[in-house]
Structures are given as structure tokens and as C-alpha cells.
Amino acid sequence: MALNSARSCPSCHDPMERLVLPGVYTGDVEIDACFACHGLWFDHLESMKLAPRAIALLFKAMHRHENAPRQPLSERLHCPQCRGALVQGFDVVRSGRYITHRCPQQHGRFSTFASFMIEKGFVRQLTRPEIADIAAKVGVIHCSSCGAPVDLRREDACSHCRSSLSLLDPQAVEKAVQRLGTAASSAPMPPTVVADALVAMAREQSRLTRERPALAGRSLGVAGAVMSLDLMSVGLRLVGRLLDD
């Protein structure tokens, strides 16, 4: 269930959307989401209280907003409760390294969608052949964790935040959807189509830019260009059919 939230986004300060999700034991857990910033606010220890069904529902909400315009995070993020500055840090789990933004007063933390997916183990790191394929067809992408450009012709990780290049794992998503009680309509797309999906989305973005002059400069073409698309967006599209109602 999605409701208007009284809290403002730690980055853009617009009102967030409150999501009421099932808890792991009893009752519901309320979290706040900003789909423009691709961010989630969790009160202290709140992310640990989410049931598997809640995570699948959150996937659905993210997928519904996958085409929403995305804006970069502000350099300084603020706690929506005390308005104090959030402190950036890093956490490491089996599926990779991700950025966290925590309130020093322990009111909670702000996570990007990509960081949350890494935390919950719904991603896998790209293999070297996949990185080589993407580098040959695209060249440069954006880091899903911090938004910095990553030149795949020279780097196999983000040079800014050192996050590994990760993709949503269709098999993990399929399991989450099955926990929700929804059968997958078909097998997920193979990971070899990642580069082709990036190129297709870049072409679509370029077309929209030509049709909407106000967006000029936001999309910089296909081959060798810095795109405003990241592997998180591509992963959502690749597994989108698993999340449809």
C-alpha cells in the first residue's frame, strides 16, 4: 500500500511516498520512498524487519516507477526527522559493497534502490566477459551506487566509490516473486543480453531527447557516451515481466 508521507526526501526535500509493507514477524512496516531520487528511508533497524513478501512488493513498486525521471543525489543529505547531516559510509555483504547514508542520532538511514538490492542479495557481480561485451557496445555507464561514470574500457569497478558492477539477478527476483505467490510467466532473460538492453535503452532515450527538446543534454547517445542509464535500470527492465501483476 502506498500513501503520501509527511517526511521529505533527504536529497531533494520533496515529500516522499509512504509504503506499508508486511513485517517479518507480525504487523506492518512503514518505509518512505522517493522515486525521483531512487532512494529509500528506513528508520533505525527497519530494513531488517521486512518480510520476504515485503521485498517482493517493493520490487513491484520500483518497477512501476522505472520510467520516472531520475535526479542525482545532493552532495549533502539530511535526516528527515532531525534535519542533521547524514554520514556516508560503506557496508560489505556477499553480493558486493554498497553505500549507506546514516543519521548520527540513529534515526535511520537513506539507501539508493541499488544499495538496497545489494544489501538483500538480489544482485550478482558482472563477469569479465559480460563487462567486455558491454564495453565493446556501450563504453561508459553510470555506477548504480553513486552515479559516477564508469569507463568499462579501462575500469571494471567504480573508481569513485569502488563499488563492483552488479546486475539484478533474475533468479533471485524470481524466487522473491514466488514467495509473494505469483508464478513467473516465463523464464528470465539470460544475462548475455545486458549490453543489448543498454544499447536499446540508450537509443530510446536519444529518441525521447529529440522529441522533447527540453531534455537536450541529458542523454548523450549510444556508443562511447556517458549515459544516464545504469545497470539497476537495465536489471529492472530485464526482470520486469516477473513483476507484472
TrEMBL record:
Upper taxonomic lineage: Bacteria, Pseudomonadati, Pseudomonadota, Betaproteobacteria, Burkholderiales
UniProt cross-references to Pfam families, sorted A to Z: Zn_ribbon_TFIIB
Record domain Transcription factor zinc-finger: where: 9-47
InterPro entries: Multihaem_cyt_sf, TF_Znf
Domain of life per record: Bacteria
Name of the featured protein: Transcription factor zinc-finger domain-containing protein
UniProt organism field: Roseateles puraquae
